[in-house]
Design brief:
two-stranded antiparallel sheet, 434 Repressor (Amino-terminal Domain), 86 residues, single chain
Length: 86
């Protein structure tokens, strides 16, 4: 599973758990519906400010949106994301 796909799955799950459609989440978060739908399709990785707005609207910690994603630093300026499939 890729980074954007994991974030997409998290957002979809959290939105559905909250019983919201993308229109309602957009209204509550002030994030455009088109951005939410693109993020849920794995086509867009949201900015930090948008993730904070969504987390607040979903009443979850910001970390819930990035659950299953971690960063493994490498040497110098290298590293990679590790993504779990659960």
């Amino acid at each position: 599973m890729e980074f954007s796909e994991r974030l997409a799955n998290n957002l979809i799950r959290l939105r559905e758990d909250a019983g919201l459609d993308s229109d309602e989440l957009a209204m509550r978060s002030s994030v455009r519906r088109s951005q939410i739908e693109s993020a849920e399709a794995g086509e867009l990785v949201l900015r930090v400010d948008e993730m904070i707005k969504l987390a607040q609207a979903l009443e979850v910690p910001v970390g819930a949106l990035t659950e299953g994603v971690s960063w493994r630093p490498g040497e110098g300026n290298t590293g990679e994301f590790e993504v779990s499939d659960d």
